[in-house]
């Protein structure tokens, strides 16, 4: 059976995922394939390059840089996370992504974005770190209302979490029969209807199918959680989730809060490690 890794998004909640992934890398736990959404894509790509500690390192280094998540960045560029700095300068110059290690690792890594014209998920395998592939990662994490639509390869894209928040079904259709899902909300969390729909309708009135996806996101998300719960019971998949709400904002810039969430991920991973190794070894 092929093993898959599914990484939910959640902006700075993704540092929980970063903590989990570092523990998995430290223990040489590998997968046959992986998929990340939003922060799961941004931080998860380091799993492919096996760069332990990179995510928390650059978050600590740049969390108070105005280009790395601020309203001043939004007013200047139309993006709360400056597109050029966060998705090109940082990974290529400031704290370089290990392109060679990523290429040597043959594990497929997919990212998910939402097509604003169709309202459907768009998936892209990341094999290199070209400008286009970095733009796909940016699109996966482009938060509606506070990010420009990302135009790539003839597509108009935004946050992958709208169309496919937890892409377990995608991995199953790709033939990954035993999956590990890393959530950034506790198991008993249930998403509610988007309270920003009036603003979203005003901004995206030209994209009715995308608005429909935004309106129904909580329904699909909660159905996916129900599916995950049932499959976890039967041993078909393995879940690592925070035991309680992480209580961290999307633009949190206090280093101690970033470390707190990262450490919670490490603790959760270490607590699950023995059971995870058994699950992984049973395929």
UniProtKB/TrEMBL annotation:
Motif DGA/G residues?
159-161
Q: Does the keyword Protease apply?
A: yes
A GO MF label: peptidase activity
Question: GO BP, one example?
Answer: proteolysis
Positions of the catalytic residues = 38 (nucleophile), 159 (proton acceptor)
Q: Where is this motif: GXSXG?
A: 36-40
Which keywords does this chain's UniProt record carry? Hydrolase, Lipid degradation, Lipid metabolism, Protease
Give all residue intervals belonging to the PNPLA domain.
Answer: 5-172
Q: Any idea what this protein is called? A: Serine protease
């Amino acid at each position: 059976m092929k093993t898959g890794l599914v990484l939910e998004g959640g902006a700075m909640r993704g540092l929980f995922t970063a903590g989990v992934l570092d523990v998995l890398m430290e223990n040489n736990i590998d997968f046959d394939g992986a998929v990340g959404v939003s922060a799961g894509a941004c931080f998860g790509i380091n799993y492919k390059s096996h760069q332990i500690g990179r995510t928390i390192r650059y978050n600590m280094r740049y969390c108070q840089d105005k280009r790395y998540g601020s309203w001043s960045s939004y007013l200047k560029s139309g993006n709360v996370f400056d597109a050029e700095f966060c998705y090109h300068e940082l990974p290529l110059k400031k704290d370089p992504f290990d392109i060679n290690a990523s290429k040597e690792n043959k594990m497929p890594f997919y990212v998910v974005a939402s097509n604003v014209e169709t309202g459907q998920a768009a998936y892209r395998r990341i094999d290199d770190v070209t400008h286009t592939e970095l733009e796909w990662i940016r699109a996966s994490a482009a938060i509606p209302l506070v990010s420009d639509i990302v135009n790539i390869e003839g597509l108009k894209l935004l946050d992958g979490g709208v169309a496919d928040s937890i892409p377990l079904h995608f991995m199953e259709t790709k033939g990954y029969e035993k999956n590990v899902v890393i959530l950034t909300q506790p198991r008993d969390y249930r998403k509610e209807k988007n309270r920003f729909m009036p603003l979203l309708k005003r901004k995206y009135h030209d994209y009715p199918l995308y608005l429909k996806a935004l309106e129904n996101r909580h329904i699909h998300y909660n159905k996916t959680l129900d599916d995950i719960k049932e499959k976890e019971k039967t041993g078909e998949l393995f879940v690592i989730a925070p035991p309680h709400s992480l209580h961290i904002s999307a633009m949190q810039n206090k280093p101690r809060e970033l470390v707190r969430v990262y450490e919670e991920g490490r603790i959760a991973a270490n607590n699950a490690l023995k059971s995870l190794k058994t699950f992984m070894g049973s395929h």
